[in-house]
Design goal:
Layout (H helix, E strand, L loop, with lengths): L35 E2 L14 E8 L6 E7 L4 E7 L7 E2 L3 H6 L6 E3 L7 E4 L6 E4 L7 E4 L12 E8 L7 E9 L3 E9 L6 E3 L19 E7 L3 H4 L1 E7 L5 E7 L4 E2 L11 E4 L9 E8 L13 E7 L7 E6 L4 E6 L3 E7 L4 E6 L13 E4 L10 E2 L15 E6 L2 E6 L16 E4 L7 E4 L7 E7 L6 E6 L4 E6 L3 E5 L9 E6 L2 E9 L4 E5 L8 E4 L4 E6 L5 E5 L4 E5 L10 E2 L6 E8 L2 E6 L4 E4 L7 E3 L8 E5 L7 E6 L7 E4 L7 E2 L18 E8 L2 E7 L4 E6 L12 E5 L18 E3 L3 E11 L2 E8 L8 E3 L4 E5 L9 E6 L4 E9 L7 E8 L4 E6 L14 E11 L15 E7 L17 E2 L20 E2 L14 H23 L5
Parallel strand pairs: 59-65
Antiparallel strand pairs: 1-57, 2-3, 3-4, 4-5, 6-7, 7-8, 8-9, 10-11, 11-12, 12-13, 14-15, 15-16, 16-17, 16-18, 19-20, 20-21, 21-22, 23-24, 24-25, 25-26, 27-28, 28-29, 29-30, 31-32, 32-33, 33-34, 35-36, 36-37, 37-38, 39-40, 40-41, 41-42, 43-44, 44-45, 45-46, 47-48, 48-49, 49-50, 51-52, 52-53, ...
Amino acid sequence: MKKNISRIWGVGLVLVVLGSLLFSALPVSAGTNSWGTVTMPSETSKVITPGIYNQDLAVAGNGSTLYAALYDDANDVGLVYKSTDTGKKWSNVSDSDWLSTNVYTDRIAVSPDDPNIVAFIDQDNTEVWLTTNGGTSWTDLGQPTAGDGSSDPASNILGIAISGKVSGTSYIGVVGDEAGPRSALWYFNSGAAVTKWRIATDAAGLDGWDATGFTADDYAVAIAFSPNFPSDRIATIVTFTDSGDVLFQVGSFAGKSWNTDVGGFDSYPVLIDEDAGTTGTRVYNADIALGADYLGADSSTRIAFVGTSTTGTTDEPGGIYALDDNDVTDVKTGAPIRSVAYNTSANKLLAGADYDWVGAGAVTNAVYRSSNPTASDPDVSSAATYKKPGVNANNSSVVVAWSGNTAISGSGGAGYYNSAQEYNYGSFAISRDDGKSWNDISLINFGYDWVSDMAVSADGAKQLFNASDGTAMMVFRYDGAWEGVFDSPDLSANDILLRTAPEDFAKFYVVEQGSDALFYTSDAGETKWTIRYATADMQDLAVESASVIYAAQLGSTNVIKSSNGGFLWDDAVDTGSSGNIWMLKSLSKDNLILGTQDGYVDYSKDGGANWTELDDEVANGNVVVTASGLNSGDFVYAATDVADDNVYHWQIGTNTSWDDIFGTVDVVFPDGTMGVGYGVYGITLAKGALYVVANDGTDSFVARTLSPSTADSSTGWDSKAKTGVVLGTYPGNTTPLQGLYTSTGSVKLWALDGNGTDYTFIYSLTDDIVDTAPALAGPADAVVVKVNPITGRAQDVNFTWNRDSNAISYQLRVALDKDFTQVISTTTVASTDAIIASIGGPFITDSIEWQDGWTYYWKVRVLKVSGQEDDNWHSGWSTARSFSVAVATVTPPVTITPAPPAPVINLPAPVINLPAPTTITIPPAQIITIPPAPAPPAPIAPAYIWAVVIIGAVLVIAVIILIVRTRRPV
C-alpha cells in the first residue's frame, strides 16, 4: 500500500552516509546529440566550381603541385588555381589586375624543375603572363616579338612550355604565327641578367638563329622542351599547312638551328599526317609528349607522341601518333585529341579527347589509353562508359597528365576557338587504374540544386548521395573524401534512388524512379558499372543482398523479384495491398514490408511469394514503415505524411488495429512557438529505440522513444528541433521514399534537407546515449540505512554517480517497487562535478522521512547535455539499486577475562650411555622457568593466545633435546 511521503527532496552537499560504498565506473558518452550539417562537396577548397570552365592543366616536376587555367563565365574573366596536394584542394592565385581588365587564361605551363615558375597565354592569344613565386605576383610579359623588333609580333599563340633551367635561366617558349600567317617560336629568357623576347624561326636569322632548315608552315600549334634540356638544349614543335599537312620539327638552342645536325640525324621535319584537313581549314589543337629519357644526342631515346585535333574530313578529325627518327605509327586515328601524356617508366600513354570540330561535338569527354604505345601495332582502349572525367553527357575536351604513376585529368574547355561553346560539367579527376576509370575530386563545374537520395554504411564512415541540377546528375561517394563516382546520360536528373547491399556497402544500385534501368557496382563505383533492366518501371527498390533484390512496380500493387542482381526477374506478384505501393523495404532474408500511398501496410515472410495486410488504415497518406520482425509477437511501426497524425505500432498475432504510441513531445522552437502541422517522412529502429523525422515544410524535428513496444498515447517522446531546415524531404519539399537513415555503433541519424541551399543537403545527429546510462557509485546495492532508536529518524542517504563528460543535468528517481510503478520522487540534479551527489533524508530542507522496514529503489538518467539545454533528449535509465531502512540495535558490553599466570615447566635430566671407552655425562637437569608475562595492554589478549605461546616453547625445548641425543662421537 502506498504510504504518504513527501515527494520533494533538496539537493545538498552534506556527506552524512552510513553503509555507502563508493566505486569508480566509466562515464557514459553523451556527445552533443544535435543536428549538424554533413560537409558536402562545395565551393570550399574549389571542389565544386559552378560556372567555371577548365581550360588547361599543368603539372610541376614534383608531381603534387598543379596549376589550372580556368574561365569564370559569370564574371567574364580568366583565373589560375593552384593545388599543392595533387588536386584535392585548390586556391585562387589570380592577379587582381586580371579581374579589372578581363584578362583570360588559356594555355598554361609550369617549369619542370621549379614549381614556382608558371606562365600562361591569355585567351586573346596575344600576351604571356609569368610568375616566379608560385602566383603571389604576376608579370605581364606582353606580346612576343623579335629581340630587335624587326619581325612581326606574335598572334594566335597556341602553345606554351617552360624549359629546365640553364645557368639559372628558364626559357618561356610559345608558338603561333606571325603575320602572313607564318609559323613561329618565340622565347623569353626568365632569370637572365637581361631579359627580353627573342624569335627562333624568323627567316632573316634574327637573334643568331639559322632558320634555313625550318619549314615555315601556316601555324605552329604545340611546343615541348626536351626533359633533358639543360643537356641537349632541344625544343620540339608541331606545325601545319593550310592544306592539312602536320609536321614535327626540332630546334637546337645550342646550335640555334632547325631540323639539321640533331644528334647526327638530319631527316627532320617529320610528316605526321598528310592532308589532315581540307584546304582552308586547320589544326585546332595539338600536343606533344616526350619520354622522360628523351635526349637529343641519343637517337634511341628520341621517341615522341603527338595528338592532333583537326577540321579534316569526317573520318579524319585527328589522332594519336608515335614517332621516332625513322617511323610514324598511327596509335589511334579518327579521334580529335586535345592532349597526350606519356609515363616512360611504365610505358603507358594517355590521350584526352578534344571537341569534335568535324562531328559537331560527337565525342564526349573521352580518354584513351595504351599499355604498349611504342609497339608497331599498339593497343588502345577507352575509359569505361560511366567512368569518364566530368559528366558524360557533355561535349568536353580533356587534358591528361601523369602525377608520378597516377593518371590525372582536367576536363571542360575545348581550348582555342571555343568561345562560342558552353562546356558545363568538367572536373579535375584522378584515375587509379591508368586511365580506365576516373573519379571527379575537384573543380567540378556542377552547381547542383538538390539531393534526392542518400545511403550510409553500417558504421557511418561511408556515404553516398545523388546530386542534380535539373539537367545532369552525379553520384558522390564519401570514403575519407568526396568523389564523383557515377553519372549517366541514360538517367534524368531527378528522383534517383540509391540502395546498398546490407552485407557489403560497396555493392549498390542506382535507380531512376519511374524507369526500368538499374545501374550496379560491386566496388563502390570505383572502376565499373553494369546496366540491367527490370521487367517493369520501378517505384522503389529493396535490396536483400547484392544478388537478391525486389522492385515495387510503379503505380501498382505488384512486386517483382530477381535472384541474380537484376539480370533475370520472376513474374510479378500482386500483393493485394489497399493502394499503390509507396515504399518497399527488406528487413532480412525473405522478410519484406511495404507501405502504400493510401495508408496501409503489408508484409511477406517468404521472399514476396505471399503477402499479408494489416487490416486497418494507419492514415490516408504515404506510409513509412519498419518492424522489429515479422513473427508472432514482433512489432510493426508506421506513420504517414498526414499533418498532425501520430505514430503507431501493431503487434503481430495480437493486434487487430493500430495502437497510437505517440504521446507528448515538447518541440519548442527558438521563437517560442510550438510545432504544429507536421507530417512524418522517415521512421527507423536502432538499438531498440524508435525514431521518426517530421517537418511542416519550414521546420523539422526528430523524436524518439526508448521503449517503443510498451509505448502508448501518453508516452513522452524525446525530441530535437531544427528550424529553417526541412528534414526528410529534398528541395521543393519533394518526398523521398525513406527519409530517415541510420548507421550503428553510436546510433547516427541521417536525413536530407529539403531547403537545398549552399550545398547543405544532408544533416546528421549522433545519439550516443541511446543505449547508455550513468554509472551509479553509491550507496551499494541492498545497503541498510539505520534509524536512530532514540529519535526514530533514519539517516540521510547520499546518492552518487559518475558524471558524463557532456552531461549538465540528471534525473534521480526513487520508487517503492523495482518496476518503478510506485514512484515517490523524481528529482532534477544539475551538476558538472566528476561525481554527482544528491542527498535525500530527514535532515535537509524539504526533507523526506525514510520508513523503518521499507525497501526503496533508485535509478538515474542523463537529462540534458552541454549545448543542448533546450532539447528534450534523455539517456536510458541506469541499473536500479535498492536500500532498506532498519532501526539500529544496542550491542551489549564486552566482558574481558585476564589470562592466567605463565606456567613453570620442570624437565628431568636425561642420561645417555655411550659405548666404551668414552662416557659422556650430561649435566644435571636444569629447571627452565618461564617468567610471568608482562601486563598486557588493553584490550587484554584472549587466554587461548597464551596457550599457543606455551605449546610453542615446549616444542622448541623438545627439538633441542632430540638434537643432543642423536650426536655421534668423533
